[in-house]
Design goal:
Mean pLDDT: 95
Number of strands: 39
Shape: elongated
Structural class: mainly beta
Radius of gyration: 27 Å
């Protein structure tokens, strides 16, 4: 038997409960965000501006029926071929939903009809701009949200947060030339002024060697504004029995004396990638360092030469180049970063060098254990700085040699100045300064950032750092001069090769 007090409470609760259940869904807030997300020619989804709608209530849905958006702050409206609004998440790198509103004529203010149901909770949307092929890489795209209508009309406190998005070029997208993914970028400016990009063509998936991978090349003769159809520079075979003789992790350099381009890569004959290689020298035992060259500005490439016999200690499990770009020193010496797995499996960064224009090569000693993918730059005093991925995480290993890698001295910035999430990065000497690009985090691969040092890498001041893409991706990048005023960066999204031309702010 229920006591009278409990019975009265239950009756009161039952009377109140239906009132709460009958609260209709209602939009109560709209908020805009604008992370740094470049807008790419050829890309189908370019999140320029995001907005979050908050819906309360416990019954039914609120229906988003109208939006007022605009593209004020855009350099040239004609750069936009069409625009769309898509639902998504707080992460602009996540796959968006289907288009809920769209248009083909960008303007300062545009009214759009929509019909999108929103249950109680938070709902994210992204305004995306699809660009024309003629959109200039020196222009910017900006967007704003003036209001959203779902029964009531609400206006965000900020129509458009500060900052407009850069325009870039999607050099490679998943599905191009029947390849599911592209990874591991390298970039160089040739003697003729051509930008030559190299990368892995990962036909079947985004995974590393061993796999069906060739080295691809893309050329731009107009400072990155447009790119020619892809060429295959190195293809070591396609027999599935040997893992398609995959070849990848390319690095490229230009010899300014001759104009010859050199391309280094790792050949995996069967399971001879990072984990499958062992002691020995033959392709059946261990991965092979191969080197090809081009004497026509990257249009065609020689048959690759195998350097393994010159470079590798037979006890090492693997030896190959560091991906990205090599350098030509002022005295004509050619240098690529390199790496090896010692007999105990520990990785070491090093370099290889040639004093005779690439006819013969020598290998240096290891910099520090647990370092892998590295890049090099010549310092003002003629020393060579190596900047290494460090498997300990947190920050980069940095060292200097004055005898082409026979001996190394740790730099003052070693494991201090440049944070990293354990990832490849790019180092460039240009215009009397050092330039560095990587995911500027100690965890995750996001916040792609360009940094400048005017004191030979001793410091990298915050005021000389430029975030160029905040989204998470695969994180590899490579820098090269575009001309005397601007620097180019090719970097990975997720299976993509993106190019930006940076200059106004640096």
């Amino acid at each position: 038997m229920i006591c009278p007090v409990i019975r009265s409470f239950l009756l009161l609760f039952a009377a109140v409960l239906p009132l709460a259940a009958e609260s209709p869904a209602k939009m109560i807030a709209v908020e805009t965000v604008q992370p740094v997300c470049p807008v790419f020619i050829r890309e189908k989804f370019n999140p320029v501006l995001g907005f979050k709608i908050t819906v309360t209530g416990s019954e039914g849905d609120a229906v988003l029926s109208g939006l007022e958006i605009g593209f004020g702050g855009t350099t040239r409206m004609a750069d936009i071929a069409k625009f769309e609004v898509r639902p998504g998440t707080a992460n602009p790198a996540a796959a968006p939903g289907e288009v809920i509103a769209e248009g083909s004529r960008a303007a300062e203010r545009i009214s759009l009809k929509a019909k999108h149901r929103m249950a109680p909770g938070e709902h994210w949307f992204w305004i995306s701009a699809v660009l024309t092929e003629e959109a200039s890489l020196d222009h910017r795209i900006d967007a704003g949200l003036f209001s959203a209508t779902a029964g009531d009309k609400l206006e965000p406190q900020v129509v458009s947060p500060p900052g407009a998005q850069r325009i870039g070029y999607a050099v490679r997208l998943p599905g191009d030339d029947r390849s599911k993914s592209y990874r591991i970028p390298g970039l160089v400016r040739s003697k003729a002024g051509t930008l030559v990009a190299v990368y892995d063509i990962r036909y079947d998936h985004s995974g590393d060697l061993p796999a069906n991978i060739d080295v691809g090349v893309s050329r731009s003769t107009d400072r990155g504004q447009s790119w020619e159809p892809m060429r295959v520079a190195i293809d070591m075979g396609d027999d599935p029995k040997h893992g398609h003789d995959g070849v990848g992790d390319p690095a490229i350099l230009c010899d300014p004396k001759t104009g010859r381009l050199w391309l280094a890569a790792l050949w995996s004959h069967g399971n001879r990638g990072w984990n499958g290689s062992g002691p020995g020298m033959t392709p059946e035992e261990t991965g092979q360092l191969v080197l090809a060259h081009s004497d026509d500005d990257g249009k065609s490439w020689s048959k690759p030469v195998n350097l393994t016999a010159q470079m590798k200690d037979p006890a090492w499990r693997l030896f190959f180049n560091g991906p990205g770009a090599g350098i030509a020193m002022k005295d004509g010496t050619l240098v690529f970063a390199a790496q090896y797995r010692a007999a105990d499996g520990k990785p070491w960064s090093t370099l290889i060098s040639s004093k005779d224009g690439g006819s013969s090569w020598q290998v240096g000693s290891g910099v520090k254990s647990d370092t892998t993918e590295a890049q090099v730059a010549e310092l003002a005093d003629g020393g060579v700085m190596i900047n290494c991925r460090d498997n300990r995480g947190g920050s980069r290993t940095v060292a200097v040699t004055r005898d082409l890698g026979k001996t190394w001295e740790l730099h003052a910035s070693d494991r201090k100045a440049l944070r990293e999430p354990v990832c490849m990065a790019s180092l460039l000497e240009w215009k009397g300064a050092l330039w560095f690009s990587n995911p500027d985090t100690s965890k995750g691969r996001e916040m792609m950032t360009l940094k400048r040092s005017d004191d030979q890498g001793l410091s990298w001041p915050v005021e000389k750092q430029w975030l160029y893409d905040s989204r998470a991706g695969f994180g590899y990048s490579c820098l090269a001069p575009v001309d005397e005023e601007k620097v180019g960066v090719i970097y990975e999204g997720k299976g993509t090769m993106y190019f930006l031309r940076l200059g106004d702010e640096i």
